[in-house]
Write a structure and sequence with these properties.
The protein is of the alpha+beta class and 696 residues long. The chain folds into 5 domains: 3-64 and 126-211, Alpha-Beta Plaits, CATH 3.30.70.260; 68-122, no CATH class; 219-337, no CATH class; 348-519, Hypothetical protein af1432 (Orthogonal Bundle); 566-693, Isoleucyl-tRNA Synthetase, Domain 1 (Orthogonal Bundle). Helix content is 49%, strand content 14%. It has 26 helices and 18 strands. The strands form 6 sheets. The protein has a 5-stranded antiparallel beta sheet with strand order 2-3-1-7-8. The protein has a 4-stranded antiparallel beta sheet with strand order 13-15-16-14, with helices on both faces. It has a 3-stranded antiparallel beta sheet with strand order 4-6-5. Helix 11 (361-378) runs antiparallel to helix 18 and helix 16 (447-466) packs across helix 19. The two termini are 48 Å apart.
């Protein structure tokens, strides 16, 4: 079948920069999915996305759908004709629905008898006939939260549509989409080439736009160009550009013909914390900042313009004039905030609501201080410093700087605490309380920081579950899933010996001390524990650990996350041993046998005089040895070595089940064998329920 290249481009007013990549991906996916559903094969594809356009080039797209054999089964032959061979009403109705005479129908023999059948060949539609609906459907399903109208049109899209290109080979696909008639004319850069550009072939699109239109249409290419230009400018300044990926994406979505220029600001502004200056440059002006070899902020910035200026100095001068008042504002906020202590700011938190049923932010700091002190005491840290950090941890929320730059919460608290003369690890904890802020983010470096971070998150998790507002589906307004993973990461990676049940109970007591009785009641501890342990599932999935391993440990509900992690790692290692499958199967068998015993009380001790068979005597001997060898390892949490020792049970267990009948008539012997299996089962249950590793 013949094939042609296909190009679609939708030209618009400037698209939302933070959504451009997502819109492009969805547009591409929507078209490719529908082409596949239509049975149309194609070669490679290349998406394009720029501030004023979404486009897609598909190479070697088939010119028509393949013909399709159609087969419809009608009534049984026995019911289709009477005794004289005349067609029944059922046969006539079926033939009519197929648009043929009864005589034109075929017969089909099956094991259940003969049937009337209609066979035909459905001719595939031309691709040009299908493309308009495919494009329209893809555009309708774009992730646009709010669509807009323009002019007198009732058409809706994320931004007003200005032009539409649809080329299949050298021919225009005749259609009208979003109120725009299709053609072959695209548009160039607003300033460098504010004119139409005729495209003869889809393959000409990218080069023609770059050469004539001053537009880099390929998103990744434009992003790469910006990165390279920014790094070059920074090198000229004798520094290193700090390229934030989110900012790079946003800048790439704002410019069609990017050009990097560097500017300078007054050295005096460097007296302000660098994070505040960086936030001001990045958030308001979309500038990249530059640091020296020691990582210190330099008084320079790099901006990306959407034109190639004949006199860049004018653009640089204009940007320097714009950034000066921004940085002056940051300096003013900083100087104003330092006139008041964080301790004094706590009073301003009293009218600020955390959650209507859980009190104010001030109340929350009281609970955090209490819980942080508890955590520090458990880990033999400085409880007084943890309590103090908890009290001050939200005071910077009412500072002028954080009210203007919300992403600086915690960071400014650290600087203001240093200015107030607080203890060093108290200052650091005010920033570390929010760690980890996202997946893969760094963790607190101080025990006080860990204590406050855990306390803050546990207070929120317990409180929100306590008022019966847990996350549901994709809705998680208080980010409880992220908070839980943060708690787990801190405890596991910092190797803290904290018990979640203790933390939950202490958090509940914190609310109770303020006169808040959480409606969830007695079930709250179990509910929160279950939720938190469930977060481990995605954690281990990301590490490539089988779900069965996680479930085998979770079945025991160990409430110390570090201990939980040690068990999972031990079972994951155990699964690689040759004995693992057989022992998992044996544990499953033992579990079933003991379950079938019902309510019978099985002895805890084994009567050696009742051991009759050599196989059960041998198993008993090995179990005794394992118990004495494994017990100190379990106390030390050395589960991996313990599981390796238990692996030696494979042979005696296999022999036992081959040679010994458990359910014998002699009740005493039977119960003694149950006791032996119970002892075997508990050896493993001290670490995990490995019977769950047996998936068959």
């Amino acid at each position: 079948m013949s094939a042609q290249d296909f190009l679609v481009e939708l030209g618009t007013e400037e698209l939302p920069p933070k959504a451009l990549r997502k819109l492009s991906d969805a547009f591409t996916s929507g078209i490719l999915t529908r082409l596949e559903q239509a049975g149309l094969k194609c070669g490679t594809h290349q998406p394009f996305a720029a501030p004023r356009r979404l486009a897609l080039l598909i190479r070697d797209l088939e010119t028509a759908q393949p013909d399709k054999n159609v087969e419809r089964r009608g009534p049984a032959v026995q019911a289709a004709f009477d005794a004289e061979g005349n067609p029944s009403k059922a046969a006539q109705g079926f033939a009519r629905s197929c648009g043929v005479e009864v005589a034109d129908l075929d017969h089909m023999e099956t094991k259940k008898g003969a049937w009337l059948v209609y066979r035909s060949v459905e001719q595939g539609k031309a691709t040009t006939e299908l493309l308009p609906d495919i494009i329209s459907a893809a555009l309708d399903e774009l992730p646009i939260p709010k669509r807009m109208r323009w002019g007198r049109s009732r058409t809706e899209f994320v931004r007003p549509v200005q032009w539409l290109v649809t080329l299949f080979g050298s021919d225009i696909v005749d259609c009208e989409i979003l109120g725009m008639k299709s053609g072959r004319e695209t548009r160039g850069h607003r300033f460098h080439h504010n004119d139409v550009i005729a495209i003869e072939q889809p393959s000409d699109y990218q080069k023609l736009l770059a050469r004539t239109g001053f537009v880099v249409a390929d998103y990744d290419s434009r992003k790469s160009t910006i990165r390279q230009q920014v790094e070059t400018e920074a090198h000229k300044l004798g520094g290193v550009a700090v390229i934030d990926e989110d900012l790079l994406e946003e800048v790439a979505s704002l410019n069609e013909w990017p050009s990097a220029l560097s500017g300078r600001f007054d050295d005096a502004f460097l007296e302000v914390p660098s994070e505040a200056l960086i936030s001001s440059m990045k958030e308001h002006q979309k500038y990249f900042h530059v640091v020296n070899d020691e990582g210190e902020l330099m008084p320079h910035f790099i901006t990306i313009t959407n034109i190639q200026s004949k006199d860049p100095s004018q653009i640089i001068s204009g940007n320097e004039k714009v950034i000066r008042p921004r940085l002056a504002d940051a300096r003013f906020f900083y100087e104003t905030d330092r006139k008041t202590t964080l301790d004094a700011n706590r009073e301003k938190l009293k009218p600020v609501v955390f959650q209507k049923d859980l009190g104010s932010i001030f109340d929350k700091t009281e609970r955090i201080a209490r819980l942080a002190s508890f955590v520090a005491t458990k880990e033999e840290g400085n409880a007084d410093n943890a309590k103090r950090a908890g009290e001050l941890c939200k005071s910077d929320l009412v500072s002028e700087m954080v009210l203007e730059f919300t992403d600086l919460q915690g960071i400014m608290g650290m600087y203001y605490a240093e200015h107030d003369g607080e203890q060093a690890d108290v200052c650091k904890a005010l920033n570390e309380q929010y760690m980890p802020r996202f997946a893969g983010d760094e963790l607190p470096t101080t025990l006080t920081g860990c204590a406050v971070a855990i306390a803050d998150k546990m207070d929120t998790i317990t409180g929100i579950f306590g008022i019966k507002q847990p996350p549901s589906g994709s809705k998680d307004p208080f980010a409880l899933r992220r908070a839980t993973l943060g708690v787990l990461r801190i405890i596991v990676e910092k190797r803290l010996n904290l018990d979640l049940c203790d933390l939950i109970n202490e958090a509940i007591e914190g609310y109770r001390a303020q006169g808040v009785e959480l409606p969830a009641g007695k079930e709250l501890n179990d509910t929160v524990l279950e939720f938190m342990l469930d977060r481990f599932r995605s954690w281990y999935q990301g590490e490539g650990i089988a779900a069965e391993v996680f479930l085998s440990v979770k079945a025991l509900k160990p409430s110390r996350p570090y201990d939980f992690d040690q068990r999972v790692k031990a079972i994951a290692d155990f699964m690689s041993l040759p004995e693992a499958a057989a022992l998992a199967s044996a544990n499953k068998r033992v579990s079933n046998i003991l379950a079938k015993a019902g309510d019978v009380i099985i002895p805890d001790n084994i009567a050696t005089e009742l051991l009759q068979e050599d196989a059960e005597k041998s198993l008993h001997s090995v179990i005794k040895t394992c118990v004495s060898d494994v017990e100190p390892l379990l106390v030390a949490g050395n589960y991996s070595v313990a599981m390796n020792i238990l692996a030696q049970l494979k042979e005696p267990v296999d022999t036992f089940f081959d040679k010994v009948m458990v359910n014998v008539e002699d009740e005493q012997v039977k119960m003694n064998r149950y006791a032996l299996l119970k002892k075997l089962r508990h050896l493993f249950l001290d670490i995990a329920d490995i019977s769950l590793l047996q998936t068959n």
